[in-house]
Design a protein that fits this description.
Elements: E1 8-15, H1 22-30, E2 36-43, H2 50-56, E3 63-67, H3 73-83, E4 89-93, E5 98-99, H4 103-111, E6 120-129, H5 147-152, E7 162-164, H6 165-171, H7 183-193, E8 197-209, H8 222-235, H9 239-251, H10 257-270, H11 274-281, H12 292-303
Helix pairs in contact: 8-12, 9-10, 11-12
Length: about 300
């Protein structure tokens, strides 16, 4: 991979009570090689020593932080996009991971191989670890790269993502959507919807630390999937189709005709009769081949009239 010394990269981090691992992650970001890096942190209402740790880096010109009301993770990261300074590229970071020193340089080198005039998003693999950075099973081995697949599920882990300025500028044109599942899910969908490109890197370039509430045991059985969908049905009324409706409303005019039609078809049939919902559920156009479980969750959601 090439050296991108002239490229300015702003890393966006949202913190919340992250005192335990924050310092280690900041160090791995500030020591990224081959680029000019700056770290912009938005604290989302921490009550522990997070702000004290950020204050320790106050004199470091590479780091700037500010505090705001508690917006929760997704909206806090989206707010960072609106508050971000001018850069060539933008990356997202959690507050508790550890990065390879060439993580961003590699991402930019892969993005630079493509058309610079279109919105682009890099998503990478990772090594999943326990709280002490010991390897554990799990990891992301693909990212959905077609818009039809993103309608079903945006498989794109935020802490691996790097986007070009073109995509960042487009995201700032419209307000944060009313229905927001997660920031990475939304950004991935927007990029593909408007004809942008998603680049997936299978080489792990970071340790994705699992601890406390961020451990996801996964969904393994059909009963588990049904229970998950049933629980979400009561927590969020049609969150997936509502978010996609927001996408069509905000970005419909910027979408290629084929993407607009794919989205409209999914929305119409997803709210249709049982027969229409089942036709959508088994439409091969939307099927994700890399992970069958994602198709199962989609079909269960349609079957239970939750999607």
């Amino acid at each position: 991979m090439g050296i991108n010394n002239g490229k300015k990269v702003t890393v966006l981090m949202s913190t919340y009570n992250g005192e335990r691992y924050l310092r280690q992650q900041i160090e791995t970001i500030l020591k990224q090689q081959g680029i000019q890096v700056q770290l912009l942190v938005r604290d989302d209402g921490s009550t522990d020593r997070t702000l004290s740790i950020l204050n320790e880096y106050q004199d470091n010109t590479q780091l700037h932080y500010y505090s705001g009301p508690n917006l929760k993770t997704a909206r806090s990261f989206m707010q960072l996009i609106f508050d971000s300074p001018k850069s060539d590229y933008y990356a997202f970071s959690d507050q508790d991971d550890v990065w390879n020193k060439n993580k961003i340089n590699r991402a930019i080198s892969l993005l630079e191989e493509n058309d610079h005039s279109i919105p682009m998003l890099y998503a990478g693999n990772f090594k999943m670890t326990d709280k002490d950075l010991n390897p554990i099973s799990g990891g992301q081995h693909f990212t959905t790269q077609k818009f039809a697949n993103a309608i079903v599920y945006s498989c794109c882990t935020g802490c691996t993502m790097v986007m070009n300025k073109k995509l960042r500028d487009i995201l700032r044109i419209h307000p944060i959507p009313k229905h927001l599942l997660m920031h990475d899910d939304w950004i991935h969908k927007v990029c593909l919807a408007i004809g942008g490109k998603v680049v997936f890197d299978s080489k792990p370039m970071m340790f994705y630390r699992q601890h406390g509430n961020n451990v996801d045991g996964g969904i393994h059985t059909i009963n588990d999937k049904i229970q998950k969908v049933w629980n979400e049905k009561h927590q969020h009324s049609r969150i997936m189709s509502s978010q996609l409706s927001d996408l069509l409303k905000l970005y419909g005019e910027q979408m290629p005709k084929v993407n607009r039609e794919l989205l409209q078809h999914a929305l119409d049939f997803g709210k249709g009769s049982f027969v229409e919902r089942m036709r959508l559920a088994f439409d091969p156009t939307y099927e994700i081949h890399e992970n069958r479980n994602l198709n199962h969750e989609f079909r269960i959601s349609l079957l239970m009239n939750y999607w």
